[in-house]
Amino acid sequence: MAEIYVDMKDLAARRDEFQQACEAKCVDLNIDVLLVKYEGFLTLNKNLQLWQARKNALSSSLPGATPDKKPAIIEESKEVGRFISEIEDNIRKIKPELDEMLWRLPNIPAVDTPVGKSDEENVVVRQVGAPKKFDFEVRSHYDLLLMNNWADFERASKVSGTRSYILKGSASRLEIALHMYAMDKMAEKGFTMVTVPSIVFEDALYGTGHFPMAREDVYYLEKDNMYLSGTAEIAINSMHGGEILEENQLPILYAGYSPCFRREAGAAGKDTRGLVRVHQFMKVEQFVICKNDLAESEKWRETLLAVSEEVLADLELPYQVIECCTGDMGLGKYKMHDCEAWMPSQEKYRETHSCSNLTDWQARRTNLRYRENGTNKVKFAYTLNNTALATPRIMAQILENHQTADGRVRIPEKIRPYMNNKEFL
Known about the structure:
Elements: H1 8-13, H2 15-24, H3 31-61, H4 70-103, E1 123-128, H5 141-147, H6 153-160, H7 169-188, E2 192-195, E3 199-200, H8 202-208, E4 220-221, E5 226-228, H9 232-239, E6 244-246, E7 252-261, E8 280-290, H10 294-314, E9 319-323, E10 335-343, E11 348-357, H11 361-366, E12 369-371, E13 378-380, E14 382-391, H12 393-401
Parallel strand pairs: 2-7, 6-12
Antiparallel strand pairs: 1-9, 3-5, 4-5, 7-8, 8-14, 9-10, 10-11, 11-14, 12-13
Helix pairs in contact: 3-4, 5-12, 8-9
């Protein structure tokens, strides 16, 4: 049940802060109503226990009662049973409502997080590398793929509809090379590489916070009552769910590789054709489990962000780092930054990485804890995540930024060892 993992005393004590977080993150949730509903739930459970105790006492007294007293005991027992049934009905009614409210309870964002309602109010932190000036007409990655016979979107749509793709020849080789590079990069940084399932239980999606808010973006396998995951974060976050780790096991650094699936329900258009927003893709995800310490978790967030920037620098892409405002950061985020690489054909930056510190918000939902050294006190861990590299989206930026006048594409130097040291695709 959701309320088990919410610190209700903290919620009541910081009622105003949580209400402000709801408003800042555009969550339709009234904390006062939530607290009243929770108190009502506690009262119902307390009354249920009292009446159950009374019924047990009546049942125990019945065998030893005199014949003249048994009818009264039986009648009272029936009446108590009716009270119990009524209370249980009320609990069954209020519990799902309470759970739904608790699952939507946001994490309180950092005090310096920009306040805003959408990505239009995100703040640019820095820009690295100037967009290249081309002395020829820039081709889109879509056109480059078609002219070089590196993709087949028409046949892909015959197989699986819009926002699907088939990569061919050098492009498919490049996709594999990029992930090999990313895996080596994460290993160098001390991360343990893991391949994780893309078919997950509903609990795992509640654990990360994708449910209940983002059901429309997740594919459901009705016959199996399971879901297709949109990121390795979902499986990794639940890997240690329900466990109590030892502090000396922390931090745990995972780099998860998996196929990912998203509905991408927004309207299609010129800006989304090709490889930018597709239903299926591959991703290497950074994930950290660390101590329940804000300063340490913020150091890890900076580390994860630095890895993303290093990847973009290795791919020789101009990029910018933005700090996400409250309305664009999601329920569980304490602090969130995105990286966006330049798209020459669109003359704007497009997202490549999303880096988040969720403090103990996810760990509470999956019951992920650790035992503190010295005190043996059990605490909820902190979790963080960030993209390491996702394809095919980032291939769009690579193709466009490294194109030549004759339609060829130069391979970034750091990727060439994975492409037989070729200079061009």
